[in-house]
Task: structure prediction
Amino acid sequence: MPVIVAANPKGGAGKSTTTLVLAQTLSKLGASVTVIDADPNRPIVEWRAGASASKIRVIGDATESTIVRTIREESTRNQFVFVDLEGTANRLVSRAITQADLVLVPLQASGVDARQASRAIALIHEEEETLAGRQIPYRIVMTRTSPIITTRIEREIIDSLKSAKLPVMRNRLHERQAYKAIFVRRLALHELDPLQVNGLTEALENAQNFADELVDILTQNAEPRGSEKKKEAAHA
Result:
C-alpha cells in the first residue's frame, strides 16, 4: 500500500502538520491509516494519546534499525502509511525515503526553507542511486500560506521551483487556526467545534482538496508500474 514520507532537514517546515492533516482526512473517508512518528519530539504520538476516537494507528518507537521493517509491515496492514521524519538528515531518514511511494517536501515561503528543501531533494536523488536507478517520486508542498493572497516572496519561490522544473503540489496547506488546534486539543479536524475555531469550514475544504490531489498523484505514479493493487488502495 502507498507509503508517504514527509521530509525536510529544517525543523518547523510543516512536516507533522502536513502528515496529520492528510492522515485524518483519509481516515475520515474510511481508509485505514498508519502514521509512523519518527520525529524525536513525537508530536503525533502526543496527539494520538488524547485522540481516543481516532482510528489512525500511530507508531512512535521506530528506530534506524527497525524503520524499514516497520514500514513494510504497516504497508501490509493498512491502506496508507505516513512517515513523519525528524528535521535532520540521518540514516533513519535515508532508509525511510528508500521505502517511499511518494516523498512530500514541506516548504514555507522563506529562503531558508527553500535551501533546506533542496537538501531533502538532493538526499532523495542520492538514495535513488542506491536503488539501482529506481526513481523516488516527490512533491514540494507549500505550507502555512495565506488563503487570501500570495505574497511576493512566495511567488518568487514558486517561480524559481518551476523554473528548475521541480514538482510542486497544486494545493497548498494554508495557515489555519484549525491545523494548530488539532495538536492542542488532540482532536481530528472534523471533531473541532466551528464556534471555537475560526475558519474551520475552509480548513476542512483545504484539507480535502489537498488529500484529493495526493490520491491523484499516487494513482498516476502507480499506473506506469502496473500496480492495480496500489491504485485500488489510493481510491479506497
